[in-house]
Design brief:
- α4 (80-93) packs parallel to α5, α4 runs parallel beside α10 and α14 (398-413) packs across α17.
- This protein has 17 helices and 21 strands.
- The protein has a 9-stranded mixed β-sheet, with helices on both faces.
- The chain has 2 domains: 47-155 and 189-272 and 299-311, Endonuclease Chain A (Endonuclease, Chain A, 2-Layer Sandwich); 321-328 and 339-547, 2-Layer Sandwich (Endonuclease, Chain A).
- The termini are close together.
- It is of the alpha+beta class and 548 residues long.
- One of its GO terms (molecular function) is phosphatidyltransferase activity.
- It comes from Xylophilus rhododendri.
């Protein structure tokens, strides 16, 4: 997410006097600098997981023929129930190790229910490693860092910046004085149990990713992974965990900040366990559950796939696949950059092999020169290209829309079919965890090529993912899984706005599913406020694409 998009709400709400105080506090906190990252103990993923319960269950489902043994097992996690329930089931079933690597872990109700399971796993002897990108690990979210006080759990922050951890606005202001560092983020997302099963994809941990936020929700996609590919995901985790940019939380969160988080915390009732799953006693540490309004949705239950994991009846789709991930050196700069090895460059190379059809889902879509060249090449061969991205109104980072808007007319001129997600309205047909009456924002990062190749990852097709963030993705060759996801994407296309050129100007066609406006043609960004439209017009010519 662009830092400017996160900073702007704080700056808009702050008065001049508050900004002055904020700046003074930030400058004071910045004087100390980062602590020396010394005394860390290097650790690795479980080397031989064959004797674990999960390994036994997966082996029973794996193909037996010689040619298929190299394949990995997959299950798509499009709805919030399976995405959340699978995570809980992996945590509950793990016997040796749990590794969590996330760009953002929000301190809220669904996260607390999950972290209760993590604490219970540690109590039964499971080694837990939590690696979190530093950008969102402040304010209320800093309470998650106190998991490092639980025996058996170690927490590290990747690429930290200076500033007070218990006050997020202060850290954001401090970031202005280290702007390049704050732009470079670990955007990876994975949860790995016993080095046997993993969940990876677009979702961070937080209510809005699992249909729990009453105001907004992210439409997202994960995949459950089994087989040798999990070892590669764990290898990437180890590379980041042992990298010099990974700081133990204990060295970054001061005792004063820990006490401050304690004072802020109000006594809370037990965190609601997932329906159908095992409940655990309420935790009395500083990471206890935050307050939620009475209207909060129940936490998704451990149904379906989660029960299959716990009972050993899991059925996976086994297929050839490749795992790709950026090296942490992309941020640390310890080695020269190799552009051919970045995840986004790999996606551009893959796109150029399309023969007939390309479906792209990217929340923040800023193609850049190289991707536009790839599009030109495959369009010249007659390949159909359809792209689903956020509208200005549905985009949680409006400045990212600036970069997309620059390319919109050129994309349409190539014959590429663009679709922009509607932000509001009744959700008659569910897509990737959509919920009725909530503001929807697209967050899934996926593509389907020629009906036989599927990609699920953390990367957006934009210059930020290409140049600033570290990313990961899985490329699966499976007509079955491609056929499972394609109808869901095509359904979303039907329910989205479709930009087009008409009489030399840009217009938006309202989808037939919009009962009040079906068939109408709009002449400005749908559902967006005047201020948002003005921001795009003003920032458009000046904002650097790699920062959007």
């Amino acid at each position: 997410m662009p830092v400017a998009s996160v900073l702007s709400p704080h700056l808009r709400r702050a008065s001049c006097s508050a900004l002055a105080a904020l700046g003074f506090a930030a400058l004071l906190s910045g004087c100390a600098g980062l602590p020396a990252n010394e005394g860390r103990v290097e650790s690795k993923a479980l080397q031989d997981p064959s004797a674990t319960t999960l390994a036994t269950r997966i082996a029973a489902d794996a193909p037996t023929d010689t040619q298929a043994r190299h394949r990995a097992g997959f299950r798509l996690l499009g709805d919030v129930e399976s995405a959340y329930g699978a995570r809980l089931a992996l945590i509950d079933t793990a016997e040796k190790t749990i590794d969590l690597q996330y760009y953002s872990i929000h301190y809220d109700r669904s996260t607390e229910a999950l972290l209760q399971r993590v604490r219970a796993a540690a109590a039964r002897g499971v080694r837990v490693r939590m690696l979190i990108d530093d950008f969102n690990a402040g304010g209320e979210n800093a309470r998650v860092l106190r998991m490092d006080e639980v025996p058996g759990i170690e927490v590290r922050l990747f690429n930290p910046v200076q500033g007070p951890r218990n006050w997020q606005p202060g850290r954001l202001f401090t970031a202005l004085f280290d702007f390049q560092r704050i732009q470079q983020r670990m955007h990876n997302k994975a949860l790995i149990a016993d080095n046997v099963l993993a969940v990876t994809g677009g979702r961070n941990l937080g209510d809005e990713y699992f249909g729990q936020d009453s105001k907004s929700n992210f439409l997202d996609l994960d995949v459950l992974v089994a087989g040798a590919l999990v070892r590669q995901i764990s290898g990437t985790f180890d590379a980041y965990w042992n990298n010099p940019l990974a700081y133990p939380a204990a060295t970054l969160l001061t005792q004063q900040e820990r006490q401050s988080l304690d004072r802020k915390r109000k006594p809370q009732p037990d965190a609601a366990p997932a329906q159908g799953g095992e409940s655990h006693p309420a935790d009395t540490s500083a990471a206890a559950a935050p307050a939620e309004p009475d209207s909060a949705r129940p936490v998704p239950g451990s149904a379906g796939i989660a029960q299959d994991i716990e009972k050993g009846t899991l059925k996976l789709n086994w297929a050839p696949a490749t795992y790709v991930a950026d090296h942490p050196e992309k941020i640390s700069g310890d080695e020269p950059d190799d552009e051919d090895e970045t995840v986004v460059d790999g996606m551009i190379n893959l796109i150029q092999r399309a023969k007939s059809d390309l479906l792209i889902v990217s929340p923040y879509f800023v193609p850049g020169a190289e991707m536009m060249k790839a599009f030109e090449g495959i369009r010249a061969r007659g390949v159909r290209i359809r792209v689903l991205t956020n509208s200005l109104a549905s985009n949680d980072a409006p400045l990212a829309h600036v970069g997309y808007a620059r390319y919109r007319k050129a994309l349409l001129a190539l014959g590429i079919e663009l679709y922009e997600l509607k932000a509001m309205g009744e959700t008659e047909r569910r897509f990737l965890g959509s919920t009725p009456q909530s503001r929807s924002s697209l967050h899934a990062k996926t593509l389907v090529m020629d009906g036989r190749l599927l990609v699920v990852g953390t990367m957006n097709l934009d210059l930020r993912s290409a140049l600033q963030n570290t990313e990961q993705a899985i490329v699966i060759r499976s007509r079955s899984l491609s056929g499972e996801l394609t109808p869901a994407i095509e359904q979303a296309l039907q329910d989205s706005y479709r930009p087009a050129m008409q009489d030399g100007r840009l217009v938006w066609h309202v989808p037939a599913s919009d009962k009040e406006r079906a068939g109408q043609v709009l002449t400005s960004e749908p559902d967006a406020s005047t201020s948002l439209k003005l921001m795009v017009d003003i920032a458009g010519p000046f904002a650097p694409e790699e920062m959007l």
